[in-house]
Amino acid sequence: MDERARVDRFLPLKPNDFHILFALLDGPLHGYAIARWILERTDGRLRLEAGNLHRTLRKLVRDGLVAPSQDRPAAEEDDERRRYWALTRLGRAVVAADAGRMRELVAEAEARKLIPRPGGT
Predict the structure, then answer these.
(1) 20 closest CA partner among 87, 88, 106, 102
(2) How far apart are CA 12 and CA 99, in angstroms?
(3) Mean pLDDT, rounded, for 77-106
(4) Domains and CATH numbers, the chain
(5) pTM for this one?
(6) Cα separations (Å) of 70 from 1, 29, 67, 80, 102?
(7) Are 21 and 60 spatial neighbours (Cβ–Cβ below 8 Å)?
(8) Phi, psi at residue 50, to the nearest 5°?
């Protein structure tokens, strides 16, 4: 299976999957940090409870989009009970493809005047 087909089989991502992958773009995070990042970036509209977050992370690991990370902060800033998660190369490609898909939808919505274009043009 070529790379494009491997990516396309995950599209479109479910919202929780997209937000988790997006949260991991800048590097490994532990579960609570992922949930907090999503809550802040969505202005509280998306709240992932611990059970749902961890079920979704397990699915993303099975799918090869996320992997446990050995990268950890300095010992004085770390809690050894936390598990850290990182994007895989495939996970990065999938979240990028889904963001591109959404960009195309937004462009179509702007062209149909469903939403205004940035800058009012």
Answers:
(1) 87
(2) 10
(3) 91
(4) 3-120 (1.10.10.10)
(5) 0.88
(6) 29, 11, 10, 11, 32
(7) yes
(8) -55, -45
